[in-house]
Design a protein that fits this description.
The complex is a heterodimer of chains A (111) and B (115). Chain A is mainly beta and 111 residues long. Chain A has no helices and eleven strands. The chains are: A mainly beta (111), B mainly beta (115).
Chain lengths: 111, 115
């Protein structure tokens, strides 16, 4: 059974620092992996989708890497801003298209 | 990215009544829609998967007679919580995608409170 773990559960950094968020999964037979952002009481905003054949994806200040063999993905956010404060969720996607989520990392960026 | 609209964003209902939540894909045709439930400070738990024109597939432990899902068109899926009870109070979120290898986009969520 697939298990998705995100470490740390919470993170607080001063503005300008780079953020490193980790996601690990137990079954490497995933189809894709997707990173999301969730603001309090809101839905999810898709950040990056990494297909299983890819090793990384980049969008602006965001970079996500994927190492299927070791069951890990890392989301990097460069030069963090207070507006980056949110909960970040990773989800592994199986061949049926089902997403299984980690518990998330709550990020606070202080001015 | 694509837009998925969920309505209502919040609803309060009396115990024993039914509540319908709508999920629409606004600018693409969603062959598959997913319904999730999220408890406070917890991650999303998949409730069911619905494909247009066919019956929904429910995850283990989810009561299909309580959570009725209808995916009548490629742009609309509905979740009806029947005979709601206070323990059904939660945040419900829908997701839609065009195909297996494409991004999943999420609605804004619906906060359901049963009193």
């Amino acid at each position: 059974k697939q298990e998705v773990t995100q470490i740390p559960a919470a993170l607080s950094v001063p503005e300008g620092e780079n953020l490193v968020l980790n996601c690990s999964f137990t079954d490497s037979a995933i189809y894709n992996l997707q990173w999301f952002r969730q603001d309090p009481g809101k839905g999810l905003t898709s950040l990056l989708l990494i297909q299983s054949s890819q090793r990384e994806q980049t969008s602006g200040r965001l970079n996500a890497s994927l190492d299927k063999s070791s069951g890990r993905s890392t989301l990097y956010i460069a030069a963090s801003q207070p507006g980056d404060s949110a909960t970040y969720l990773c989800a592994v996607i199986d061949s049926w298209g089902k997403l299984q989520f980690g518990a998330g990392t709550q990020v606070v960026v202080t001015p | 990215g694509a837009v998925v609209s969920q309505h209502p964003s919040w609803v309060i209902c009396k115990s024993g009544t039914s509540v319908k939540i709508e999920c629409r894909s606004l600018d693409f045709q969603a062959t598959t829609m997913f319904w999730y439930r999220q408890f406070p400070k917890q991650s999303l738990m998949l409730m069911a998967t619905s494909n247009e024109g066919s019956k929904a597939t429910y995850e283990q432990g989810v009561e299909k007679d309580k959570f009725l899902i209808n995916h009548a068109s490629l742009t609309l899926s509905t979740l009806t919580v029947t005979s709601a009870h206070p323990e059904d109070s939660s945040f419900y979120i829908c997701s839609a995608r065009l195909a297996v290898n494409t991004e999943a986009f999420f609605g804004q969520g619906t906060r359901l409170t049963v009193v």
